[in-house]
Amino acid sequence: MSHNPSLERRVASLVHAHFEALPQRSKPTIHGNGMREWIPLSGIVLVTNENTPEETLTCVAVATGAKCLSSSQIAQCSGLVLHDSHAEILVLRAFNHWLLEECKSILTALDETNRDVNSLLNYSGSGFIKWNLEDSNIQTSIPWPPFRIKDNIKIWMYCSCAPCGDASMELCMAAQEDATPWELPVPELRNTGNPDGQQQVLLNGRAHFSILGAVRRKPSRADAESTLSKSCSDKLALKQVASILSFPTSLLLAPTPNTYISNIILPEEELSRTGCERSFGNGESGRMRPLNGRVWEAGQKGHGEFEFRPFKITPLPMEDFERMWKYGKPTSKSSEQKVKTGNASAVWTAPPSNSTRPPFTTKWNDTPNFLELEWHKAYFKTPPTNLNETLINGVKQGYRLNSPGFKKASALSRARMWALLSDIFKLLNVYSLIPQLLNDSEASSLSQIVLSAPSYDFLKSQTVTSKYSEARAQVLRDVRLVLKNWIRNCGDDAWDLTVLDAPVKEKRPSCRLREEFRQ
């Protein structure tokens, strides 16, 4: 191991090491005709006590992917299929899944024989999450949401490619043989899901790169059916205000400052300062500038608050990146090589921090020697793992989108995330935490909705009636109005948790009955 490496180098190497430890089925391949696959990679690393002698790094989520579903496929998903499998979005879902598992592990570790108030308030068992208390020596009840990320934690994100959409427009221009702006498109108008009901223009992912600062679709082939999934640039811009918490985790974790991405690392050649400042920034050219200084109070004290918190963007030297990553997208230097985007996505998450085999953690002075062939094994051979999936077209490898039953569903799917959320609420009720410590009428109401909602649409619409969830919903509306042209990807919400029930197998008729039928 070398000493005193930069933080961005250590974060990137930790993400790459976890990817290298994945099984071969989760990685791009080289085909018999010499065709090489490439794939974007993203990871989430939690930095504890940053810039101190006690600093540690823990990679909790890794994902690869470059595909998404067309708009016509959304209605077929029934909560079992992932709409957006771009690496950046998958890793955010994976991180939220890890947060839910971390919350669940705190509850499952409670000693049922010693559940007095003081013991519960002072117990966490997690290295990253704690009860949502300002001072456990004073308070005798917990405000809702019940958990919060610890104050000494910062969220770092690593991406091997520039986010698709507005932040990468300058890179798209530079890659063109002719960088002359294209003619403006004939508008394709939609008004589905717009808060003001007005028609808006849908802009393709890479097309018409002279139009800057616009919300875009995910990029796709010119002959491919269009999608309504927004670009990674747009979704990451939204996270700067709404926090990294997704809908399920937002019901359990307070939106404190450290629920926001602190820093995003990009390879030097994947970073356009102009594009990123426009797409994510709050300066003169930043499209997020109208949100400067805005604060959305999330209910009473202790509930947290939403605020525009721009993340920093840090470059990773190309020398380091190229030594770590052999599945990168083609460049002009390698244009003669046969390449294509990989179809498979990989998802990995660490186990909860109080597991018998907790997540792998490195100290401030640990980083491998990249000149060694198998440099990643300086960290580990196989890291502690909770979830490891290989996905194709939003479902587990070996299944199709229209495959019957629930076994195709990723742990990151809407249905399975709701089921995990339900498990946590059941534990809160089992330990009598909602009536005893979470003495909040909103908590009881939320519990009832989560456990008995007749549809996913009902779940989302009714939880918004709580003061905390209402604040988050207002944040989403306000940010989408600032970004403009944000058209909702609707149609996958008319289902409930019975989609995860095992189908009842029909009994085969006996031999005698089959014989009688033939006669």
TrEMBL record:
This protein's name: A to I editase domain-containing protein
Gene Ontology BP terms: tRNA wobble adenosine to inosine editing
Organism: Trichophyton tonsurans (strain CBS 112818)
Composition bias, Polar residues: 340-362
Region (Disordered): 332-362
Domain of life: Eukaryota
Limits of the A to I editase domain: 61-495
One Gene Ontology molecular-function label: tRNA-specific adenosine-37 deaminase activity
Pfam entry (one): A_deamin
Top-level taxonomy: Eukaryota, Fungi, Dikarya, Ascomycota, Pezizomycotina
